[in-house]
Write a sequence for this structure.
């Protein structure tokens, strides 16, 4: 999340001119810090409070900047599925950053470098399979808030096994763009996406 | 899907338009890979290719490929060379006649 804004950025979000923002600052109505170069920097919280006091609704563009970036790891040996998942999730939010792994070893390597909010995990992987990746994730407290969406061709045994290992949801392949989008949206909203094909833990 | 003048007309989600060229290119490569693997008796590779096609065909708006991929996976497990060659040709023919419009 961006913590400080320039007067130009604040003006854009509030849909007013830059001079209005400068005036608010000069009048002491809007708190701002000054950089060594003499530029104003407005703390995000101060800008929100100021807008609230004035009863000015936070405009959509402004609100979007406060949506935290979601970090997603897509683990699938099929590049077409990786591309499709990425496309579906990008439709959900522009604030998503993706890492891709094509096998379990790559996934393990990536997980040693960052903590994703979501892992989209194929079960059928070369070398280290999706079950082992899931076990690793659930054995490390670092990943306690990481959602795991298991994806694979439908099989009741597979599904029960991966949900038993701690995956949050099982989405069966083949799925459509809309399925992945809706499933992840509900997972991020902490809702169980039971309406979509698949099953929650 | 409708067939006329030897074309297989399919309507696909316009959101997939930018992904489709790579997807189709990889399916052409799959056909080549299947025939190579057949020559080498490498049924494991054929099964893996079938599995991938099964998993992605419908996702890309082409359920026929998912069906062929599923059969390919089964025939690879059974090491049925004739059936595998026939399925690879089916993929090739399907791709040759495919006419996609994005809705």
């Amino acid at each position: 999340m961006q913590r400080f804004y320039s007067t130009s950025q604040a003006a854009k979000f509030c849909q007013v001119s830059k001079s209005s923002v400068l005036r608010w600052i000069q009048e002491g109505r809007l708190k701002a810090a000054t950089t060594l170069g003499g530029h104003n920097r407005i703390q995000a919280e101060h800008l929100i409070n100021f807008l609230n006091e004035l009863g000015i609704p936070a405009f959509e563009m402004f609100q979007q900047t406060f949506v935290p970036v979601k970090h997603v790891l897509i683990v699938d040996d099929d590049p077409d599925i990786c591309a499709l998942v990425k496309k579906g999730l990008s439709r959900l939010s522009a604030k998503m950053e993706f890492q891709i792994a094509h096998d379990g070893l790559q996934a393990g390597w990536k997980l040693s470098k960052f903590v994703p909010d979501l892992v989209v995990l194929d079960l059928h992987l070369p070398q280290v399979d999706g079950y082992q990746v899931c076990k690793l994730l659930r054995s490390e407290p670092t990943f306690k808030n990481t959602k795991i969406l298991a994806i694979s061709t439908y099989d009741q045994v597979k599904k029960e096994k991966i949900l038993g290992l701690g995956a949050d949801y099982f989405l069966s392949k083949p799925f459509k763009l809309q399925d992945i989008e809706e499933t992840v949206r509900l997972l991020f909203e902490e809702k169980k996406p039971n309406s979509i094909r698949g099953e929650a833990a | 899907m409708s067939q006329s003048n030897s074309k297989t007309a399919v309507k696909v989600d316009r959101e997939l338009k930018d992904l489709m060229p790579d997807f189709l290119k990889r399916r052409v490569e799959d056909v080549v890979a299947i025939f190579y693997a057949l020559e080498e008796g490498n049924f494991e590779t054929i099964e893996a290719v079938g599995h991938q096609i099964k998993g992605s065909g419908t996702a890309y708006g082409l359920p026929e490929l998912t069906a062929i991929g599923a059969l390919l996976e089964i025939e690879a497990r059974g090491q049925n060379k004739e059936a595998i060659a026939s399925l690879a040709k089916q993929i090739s023919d399907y791709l040759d006649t495919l006419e996609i419009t994005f809705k």
